[in-house]
Write a structure and sequence with these properties.
Chains A, B, C: The chain crosses the membrane at residues 23-44, 97-118, 163-185, 197-215, 235-254, 266-286, 319-339, 360-377, 410-428. Chains A, B, C: InterPro entries: Ammonium/urea_transptr (IPR029020), NH4_transpt_AmtB-like_dom (IPR024041), RhesusRHD (IPR002229). Chains A, B, C: It is found in: Cell membrane. Three copies of one chain form a homotrimer. Chain A is mainly α and 455 residues long. Chain A is 72% helix and 2% strand. In chain A, strand 2 and strand 3 (132-135) form a beta hairpin. Chains in contact: A-B, A-C, B-C. At the A-B interface, helix 3, helix 9, helix 10, helix 13 and helix 16 of A face helix 1, strand 1, helix 2, helix 3 and helix 4 of B.
Amino acid sequence: MGCVQSFRELCDRQKNTNVRKSLPAVCIVWQTAMIILFGVFIRYNEEADPHWVEHRHTNNISSDIENDFYYRYPSFQDVHVMIFVGFGFLMTFLKRYSFGAVGFNFLIAAFGLQWALLMQGWFHSLDYTDGKIKIGVESMINADFCVAGCLIAYGAVLGKVSAVQLLVMTLFGVTLFAVEEYIILNVVHARDAGGSMVIHTFGAYYGLSISWMLYRPNLDQSDRLHGSVYHSDVFAMIGTLFLWMFWPSLNSAITDHGDGQHRAAINTYLALAATVLTTVAISSLFQKHGKLDMVHIQNSTLAGGVAVGTAAEFMLMPYGALIVGFCCGIISTLGYVYLTPFMEKYLKIQDMCGIHNLHAMPGVIGGIVGAITAASATESVYGVEGLINTFDFEKDFKDMVPSRQGGHQAAGLCVALCFGVGGGIAVGKFKKFTTDMINHVENGSIRESCFNVYE
Amino acid sequence: MGCVQSFRELCDRQKNTNVRKSLPAVCIVWQTAMIILFGVFIRYNEEADPHWVEHRHTNNISSDIENDFYYRYPSFQDVHVMIFVGFGFLMTFLKRYSFGAVGFNFLIAAFGLQWALLMQGWFHSLDYTDGKIKIGVESMINADFCVAGCLIAYGAVLGKVSAVQLLVMTLFGVTLFAVEEYIILNVVHARDAGGSMVIHTFGAYYGLSISWMLYRPNLDQSDRLHGSVYHSDVFAMIGTLFLWMFWPSLNSAITDHGDGQHRAAINTYLALAATVLTTVAISSLFQKHGKLDMVHIQNSTLAGGVAVGTAAEFMLMPYGALIVGFCCGIISTLGYVYLTPFMEKYLKIQDMCGIHNLHAMPGVIGGIVGAITAASATESVYGVEGLINTFDFEKDFKDMVPSRQGGHQAAGLCVALCFGVGGGIAVGKFKKFTTDMINHVENGSIRESCFNVYE
Amino acid sequence: MGCVQSFRELCDRQKNTNVRKSLPAVCIVWQTAMIILFGVFIRYNEEADPHWVEHRHTNNISSDIENDFYYRYPSFQDVHVMIFVGFGFLMTFLKRYSFGAVGFNFLIAAFGLQWALLMQGWFHSLDYTDGKIKIGVESMINADFCVAGCLIAYGAVLGKVSAVQLLVMTLFGVTLFAVEEYIILNVVHARDAGGSMVIHTFGAYYGLSISWMLYRPNLDQSDRLHGSVYHSDVFAMIGTLFLWMFWPSLNSAITDHGDGQHRAAINTYLALAATVLTTVAISSLFQKHGKLDMVHIQNSTLAGGVAVGTAAEFMLMPYGALIVGFCCGIISTLGYVYLTPFMEKYLKIQDMCGIHNLHAMPGVIGGIVGAITAASATESVYGVEGLINTFDFEKDFKDMVPSRQGGHQAAGLCVALCFGVGGGIAVGKFKKFTTDMINHVENGSIRESCFNVYE
């Protein structure tokens, strides 16, 4: 016994020595690389540059208030809260992994948003006249969106991976995201304001595929159930509520000025409200003694926001939003009851936070709802100009019609699925990564192995 | 003993079976009803509709930034946070009722806002040309306001009612609210930007009357005192602070564009600051050894925001706002010290969260302050146009004068009181409801009987 | 033993009697004074006054949306959250001092903002035509900024001072702040949008000097280490994250409309992201077994926001912001590892929250970065008009050139340092104050001596 003990200690010391070197090294080197790349590539766009005054005069803009900052900054801050407090606290439910949930969420989001500004910049806002990426408030929102995809993936492997592994996951995740997003939005010309496909479907399948590659039988599902304590579940509710409340801002953050943002906020607000009721209904129906399960309340209540992401800016109509929310609350909660245990037992996919129920399924539904809503758009409902604005039937796509747009939306969903599953498998197969990760989880226990805990 | 035990278990099983059926049934049926009613009645208003581009041209609106969305959306999000995090966490102070506080708050708010959109829509934004309710960002704010009234009422009966009973309370509460609001704002033509009368006075007396109807001697006040633990009181401070910080947004959310919103925010900011100091003073003065009581800090510090609700948009003047805050901090804290125990002992009204001190008394004060401020308005202070804008002396009321407006404000307060007390008694008398509720509270203990608690 | 015990009890009773009288007395008297002073001096400015409609016509302002309220209110609310939730919860890490951290933070901020409106008003917005201070949304932001300085100082003496002493510290702190701010911004003509010098350097040295004057050997550093429990550290993360997320709003809240606010937000966003990575790196490198320390994650991750405060509105460039964040994460974390123990042991300065690492050093760096960035400004980068707008080269300073502006910035930093150190020593020497404070800390223990704790 003593021998085993000391061998373990040896391993531990070994591992800790590696961590001691590798985490600082990765952070310093990658951050230095960011500085260099930002120095070469990134500049302010014309709305954040002191030449704005002249730009205003040239473009006949009557007032400073028409700077895009004032259209989007409040939404940006709401999205920012969702990324750091929302996702961070949503994952604090584990009894002894609150530091890791909030802390690593913080770390990978802070790295991810820098890399996202570069990757998305190269694809979307490269100024060919001087070879620079011009950033503004919309770039910051998009970077946060991109990070969201990686944080969703983190939910699948919560407690099972080290900080360095998470940073690697984020590096590849952001890269894949930017390519996928470019293909969906620019090549396929699908619209996806709230990212049902681009963010949620991609992020969830990316995380689940990695988790599948890393299946560890020791870490059984009982950890999930026994893992929360009373107060950690209350902390998780902070995450849930900030995500729930600010979801209308997420879905409307980068939609068209005016009616676009307005409508997206209304639709999301309604879909989320409906989801809460059906989540409670199903949770009560399928738990013993009709009691409610906090896991469902924490997660499934958000499914409506995911599912309405693509169609939020379309004429989904208020009742349409309610229907989407209604269905997603049911499907997502049933997922927690039946699908998550099934996936673990038979498919060997562990899903710590149940992201398949919260992001994957609602994301796919969101893509389908978007395709249907787009395909059924008519000029009488949108108006001539409204139709062009809403679906961006301009430039190369000025001959597009709604029915074809529906097909393009469906194609976009397929791209997101392929990138998620394919990318996740590729990253999961990355050998060194896997080996490390397996070493990391000893005896299947989830604990704050990376934090000093005084107690 | 064993016999009693098994009889209790039987009752429990019986009750649980009912809950198991009734909560899901109510949620699913009511949500389905919402979908149908929304399908029949609710559409986007012209600022959230794709025809907005054409609307802009027709109405000569120069820029998208003048869409009401940009005037009100940041305030809406702050109000939204108050409803879900503010009210939810404020009630988490009980040792073993944090799930219920946050979770049921979430459920009834999510249902209430849908029903409020319909009820308020029928009264306020029905388009007679096509029989549809047209919603926009202001409707969402108003729905949140309406829900606030019901959440205040929840505070009186915290821990004593089941989810279904709360939903019933909310259904009737929202209905009464919409009628009362219509009478006060449109018939009586009182102004009530922050809802001192419409929201707080109504909501508090509605809740207290229900609590009075349901008096249970077993559930004595000691539960309140022994009910909190250290960390649950810290959680409650999250609720307090988010309510306190965002109250300026609540009081300014639906006031007039420009100076109206600006002034309402300033007045509320000042009133709340003054309240904090007098609350601390009185709490320290009346507690043994001069120690502060967290219950006072959590609740009475908010009284100034309630009391300044009606007059916030008027020329209350900065010192006026401070005076209102000063008085309310004192009155509200004294209420916790003397009035709450008195009400329980002699009037048989249990008030779990002390809503009489936080909402009822400050709400009435707010109504009176509003009446006085309105009655003393002059053209020299407001300007000719300013007076008309601030008090809406237009259309049917274009011959109104400030002194008469003061009378109308007072009349509005009476309407709120009548609806609160009358409505609460009626709902409380609703027999089946009462019986259920009495069964629900066994041995006067407050615990998470509706949630799965692993520990 | 019994004798000592009873003597202590006597002292305790004595002290408590004083507290019982002094805290209520101070709160009531000071608040009354505020009401009188507000009555004499404070009025709404033209954008919050009902004459705004006429003001609009006179000044040819086309729309209500150009009211400053819509430019700054969302930022104001974010700053407000930083002050009350951010600073309040950041200090909840101590096991048995969460009430004091959140509660006293609340109290002194509520008093401080009123006094700040007066003090800053006399210096900055006094209308000489009628002798009144005209307040609007920008005044509220500035009052919150001023309060921030005092809350930073509170961090140095956390748990060691009573509520009355904190109020005295705040009274003098706000007064000194207003004078210092006037000298730096108006006399020296330095720019300091995010307050690296005005707020952070001043506030931190003010607090540290007071702490130095009050050195108590009994209260040793071990209290800091043993003082946190698992959940209190999670509460502190709420504070950290809200500060981190909303820092872009703080640095951009009072900068120029348009590109100024836009650029300040981008720079702060980037600097903070870089800080997270280097903080994690250094924390892992210097802790045993490469584990992360929550104290570093909670505090040092914010240093980048402090250090970018002055230069955020200048053309710091995105990579410049990253470099500043990079360095500050390293310096701040090293400060926690080496400097705080050193200061306590050799300099007899106790720094409970490590404000020297979070505010003092990054503040000074921010001042220097600001001076360098200003000195290297050119017309080609800023444009003719942009240069004038950004640095306010108008009126008395219309002949200013960037290189001289750099000197003025450096001079501003010196003023902040002098006021901080000098003011702190003066207040700390204030005899009665010191004696009280020493009595207050018995046996060097930090506990909720001022709050009723039921448990």
